[in-house]
Structure formats: structure tokens, C-alpha cells
Amino acid sequence: RREEPGGISVGACNFWPKWHAKSGKLLGVGSAVPYKHNKVMSAHRSETSYSVYDPQKQIWTAWDTLALPDAKKFYNAGAGCVQRLDLPDGEILLPINFRAESEKFIKVAVLRCAFDGSKLTMLEQGNVLAVDRDYGLAEPSLTRFGGRYYLTLRQEKAGYVSTSDDGLHFSEPKKWTWDDGSDLGNYNTQQHWVTHDDALFLVYTRRGANNDHIMRHRAPLFIGQVDPEKLCVLRATERVLVPQRGARLGNFGVTEVNESETWVTVAEWMQTTPPNPYDFTKCMKYGSDNAVFAARIKWKTPNKSWNKR
Questions:
Q1: Considering the entire predicted model, what is its pTM?
Q2: Dihedral sign for Cα atoms in the order 210, 212, 214, 218
Q3: How far apart are the first and last CA of the chain?
């Protein structure tokens, strides 16, 4: 973290690393969030942070922030918990959420960026996606499948999905549903993609899984196959990826390890439902112990383009 005048501490958070093949570097991207008296300053400026791993020193370089062209427009901007997409030429499609200081609702856009192995630079911005209610849209994650680009989005009442032909200009967001048209049940929690050459999957949490005792129904973690045309989850394909043991699992990440395996990693967040959400003993009654899970998805058919997205 970094100290700023007025007793403000800025910390890099919601940070997710991914191998950048063109540069041969491990690049992590997240948010730079200000705190005062150990509380987030939601009205203060926030930025998109990034850092590069130094394998010789076995440390991450001091984090920097992505320069954006309009400080007022991107007053509160970040790429926390997002899945980015690296293009064959080394350019990066980076989804971010942002809002102006005067705006109420958070919006989403994809940025085309350059990365030279040390510095991340914005080149172009795609269209703005918005749902102007509650807090708006947040924590976007991006993938490419079958020649199309897919963006999944967090929103307070429901998860959303959008598609694009070029990775920058996306369709109007659509609520996530089952294949019968009913609501998927995900809300106020991030979702991420697991992408195979032959099929597209969504990892998510939802209501309706005997999990009313879990804060925001954030456990278990489910995985289900996506219909890429109808933009829905096929109910018959749903499986529990990480079990529910009383603690929430809402923040998680996906790593494509090689053509044979994709991992989903998550830690038990020992919070429970109000009125005392920090009473971790309630979580422990169901078996949770702050464990870290690595769910290893082993592909029967090689995922040959695993390192090309």
C-alpha cells in the first residue's frame, strides 16, 4: 500500500495475475482503492492498478496505475477481479468498471491496451455498458469463444451477459437465465468464465441451493455450460465446483494451467449473515475453517488454445 496526505492509505486489491505470452511476463491487474481509518473511501478517486512479477527477485514490482485520458470521466475506475483477454499480437482487452465523481451508477467498458513487459498503456475504449439502477454494473469478465467475445457482469439484483464481434463494442446486457428462461439466481456477486475450445462454461453462485444461511448466497461455487447463442446456462449441466461449508466463496479466480487443466481457486471468507456478519463461529458450525480450494478441471479433450486468450 501507499500512504497519501490526510491519513489516506491506497492499497492494490482485487488483484488477479495472468501470464502475458507475448512479453513472457506475469502481469497482474486489479484496483487501487483508498482507505482512511481502515475504511474504504467510496467517494474518493480510485484507479486501475497493475504489477509485474520479477522471477529473479521473486517479488512483484511496485504497483503502478493505468493512465486514463479523462480524469473526470474515470474518477472511480478499476479492474478488480476481472478476467482480461490477451490478443496474439500482445495487445490486451481489459474490461473495467468506472463512474464519474458526479454519477451514481457504475458503468463498464472494455479498453484495448498495450503492454511492453513493464508498462500498461490504454489505446482505445469500447462502448459503455450500463444498467442504471441499484449501483449499476461491476466486476466484468471477458472471454472469447467460437469467434465471439463474451462479457459477464455483476449487478446487485442479477448477473448480466453481453456479446461482441470485435471485443470492444458490446450488445445491450441481458440477465443471466436458465435455458427455460427462468432467472439463474445469481446476484451481487462476480461470475467468471471457464473456456474450452469445444464449450463455454460459467462459474457462479446463486440462490435456491439450500444456502440461505450463506451471506448473499455466495456458496457453493457452481459451474454450468453456456449456450453461446441463447446466452443462458444449461440447467442439466450444472455441477458443484467448490462445496458450501458455511462460509462465502464469492471472490474467486480462474487460471488456465495448460491444455489439460483449468483451475478455479477460492478461499473461504469467514463471514455470515447479519446481524453479526463477523461471527465466524457460525460458519464453523457447517465445517468451514478458512480453507483455500483449488478445483482442478481436467479436460478429456485437449484445450489447445488455452494460452491464446
A1: 0.96
A2: positive
A3: 30
